[in-house]
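Task: sequence design from structure.
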């Protein structure tokens, strides 16, 4: 099992619990909202950057971390990431910020995020970095070929 370095930037995480997998088979670690006071997010307002209170050193070109919405908050409350998925490159070693956006229609209820709420999850994955070779024509054909955007049916 690979070990990563975790830097705690917000001491309140020692009270709330360090980022961890919530079950034995969880894919991601929950990320906390390290904000000074409750934050009200309005539907369809501009995304807000919320500090996570941590930095992680991967320092491995064969690894990437993806910041994802927590399914319950996204489905039940409408809280998603401002960019859908946040990519944390292996050489990024600063604080991880969560871009939060409330996707609900205008006029819907706002959502209050409190300090210490778990609002996103961080998933680690292996990464491939193939070399790209410029060609005039591909060396092989595929069954699908140039078909896209519904070409295989519904």
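Answer:
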């Amino acid at each position: 099992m690979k070990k990563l370095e975790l830097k705690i930037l917000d001491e309140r995480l020692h009270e709330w619990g360090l980022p961890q997998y919530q079950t034995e088979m969880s894919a991601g670690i929950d990320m906390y909202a390290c904000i000074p006071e409750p934050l009200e997010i309005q539907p369809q307002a501009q995304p807000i950057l919320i500090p996570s209170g941590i930095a992680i050193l991967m320092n491995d070109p064969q690894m990437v971390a993806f910041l994802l919405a927590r399914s319950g908050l996204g489905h039940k409350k409408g809280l998603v990431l401002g960019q859908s998925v946040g990519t944390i490159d292996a050489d990024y070693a600063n604080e991880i910020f969560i871009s939060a956006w409330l996707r609900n229609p205008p006029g819907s209820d706002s959502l209050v995020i409190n300090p210490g709420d778990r609002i996103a999850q961080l998933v680690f994955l292996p990464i491939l970095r193939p070399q790209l070779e410029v060609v005039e024509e591909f060396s092989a054909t595929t069954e699908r070929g140039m078909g896209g955007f519904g070409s295989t049916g519904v």
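The mean pLDDT is 93.
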